[in-house]
Write a structure and sequence with these properties.
Elements: E1 6-15, E2 18-22, E3 33-36, E4 49-56, E5 62-65, E6 76-84, E7 88-92, E8 99-102, E9 115-122, E10 128-131, E11 149-158, E12 162-167, E13 171-176, E14 189-197, E15 203-206, H1 211-228, E16 232-233, H2 241-248, H3 252-264, E17 268-271, E18 274-277
Parallel strand pairs: 13-15
Antiparallel strand pairs: 1-2, 1-4, 2-3, 4-5, 6-7, 6-9, 7-8, 9-10, 11-12, 11-14, 12-13, 14-15, 16-18, 17-18
Length: 281
Amino acid sequence: MELGVWQSLICVRKVEFGVYLAKRQDAPREERVLLPAKQVPEHLEVGDGIDVFIYRDSGDRLIATVNTPLIEKGRVARLKVVEVGKVGAFLNWGLEKDLLLPYKEQTRKVGAGEECLVALYVDKSGRLCATMNVYEYLEQDSPYQKDDMVRGTIYETSERFGVFVAVDDRYSALIPAKECYGNLRIGDTVTARVTQVKEDGRLNLSVREKAYLQIEKDAARILEAVDAAGGFLDLYDKSSPEQIKSRMDMSKNEFKRAVGHLLKTGMIVLEENGIRRRGTL
């Protein structure tokens, strides 16, 4: 019998409080698992087969259920936090005993009532637990192609690599560091464009549109910043990339493209150390 997955077992003994199941009729007692009476189908007899899910009850004993959990071992799902205790958070996964998400498996602190993306695994002590480190559990055979728009959940961030995303809460994807704009936090849902389908099937994403579409949006943001500063913005082509990224949340190249667009349309004029809205002093 395997923890955390559905399997077909045989009814080997009926008792008042349920039935015992095993892989074979002559299985010894230690290789049997109880299916509680309230879950036993009405016409189940000794020798009949039945599909069940195996987990551990509140007494840490193996138990069978015909109820459908919200997640299986090795899979990823979004589960709701029921409460937070001394050892971690407890998640509702559709069964009587809540699922533990240990503190060491949390990539951010979670609170009661919120949802978090987790995978189900068996820990070193043989218990089913949840983890927010879902990278190794995500699939790599997504149906998406370059330039498709996708939605996903951010599950990890890295200054070196970028922002890791579970597209459809299922497929492995990355927003590379150079494409990270805005406040991208673990747990957020993002809409992004596929920029590359890598050889191993993982996706590279961007939260920005194609350059010719993004210029209009960037130009509008620059105009808003100019107006908010009273008609003059002290950023220009010699400003550092860090200054531009910090204040405008765009790369220096994107800033220069948008400024060029505004110059062509006559909306702004360039001065020695900044940008002025045309017609303002």
